[in-house]
Design a protein that fits this description.
Elements lengths: L1 H24 L18 E2 L25 E14 L6 E8 L20 E7 L15 E2 L3 E13 L25 E7 L1
Antiparallel strand pairs: 1-2, 2-6, 3-5, 3-7, 4-6
Length: 191
């Protein structure tokens, strides 16, 4: 009987060694990191709108009234959202931000070197035609399932008036001439 017990122990020991060898074949030699996020965004931003370019075109100095806040060259632009689900969120608001004008923090100032002095870029809500100040959310848009387009306009805006002339001659223009560049970011807030 002792001999039989030994065989069983030896056989069980071999099985145990075999199981340990299999277990060591599955030892940790690396790792996998899983990342992602869960959000409650009702839509995704249309890929063409993630980096959008709006050509403001050319305007003449004469197109501006000689008052601070006078606008010229309104250009329409849109922001489109897609894959919208209204199951959890029913409304959205758009907030623009960017380098503010030194004289009026509600409008975009110029970026880069050699920019035209005396002007900025003003954004208006196309639904109402009213100015949409930087860092201020638009009034809510009601979301529709699938696709939504939000319309705005951008205009050049005068920041300074022309100097008064003497002897019946016109004074120097408060606005310069040349290139105009401004950069805005936008955030969509779902409600």
């Amino acid at each position: 009987m002792v001999k039989k017990t030994c065989k069983c122990t030896t056989l069980c020991g071999s099985s145990l060694l075999l199981m340990m060898a299999v277990a060591s074949a599955h030892a940790s030699d690396g790792q996998v990191e899983f990342t992602g996020s869960i959000n409650d965004n009702a839509c995704t931003i249309n890929s063409e709108n993630v980096k959008k370019s709006v050509d403001m075109g050319q305007v003449r100095l004469a197109d501006f009234a000689n008052t601070v806040g006078a606008t010229a060259g309104a250009v329409p632009f849109s922001i489109s959202l897609e894959n919208c689900s209204t199951a959890t969120m029913k409304n959205a608001a758009i907030t623009f931000s960017g380098q503010q004008s030194v004289t009026d923090p509600t409008i975009l100032g110029m970026t880069g070197e050699n920019q035209v002095p005396g002007v900025g870029i003003q954004i208006n809500d196309a639904r109402t035609g009213t100015k949409l100040p930087l860092n201020t959310a638009s009034t809510d848009y009601v979301l529709r399932p699938q696709s939504n387009t939000f319309d705005f306009t951008a205009s050049y805006v005068r920041l300074v008036v022309d100097a008064e002339g003497t002897g019946g001659k016109p004074g120097a223009s408060g606005i310069g001439t040349g290139q105009v560049n401004a950069l805005a970011s936008f955030d969509v807030t779902y409600k």
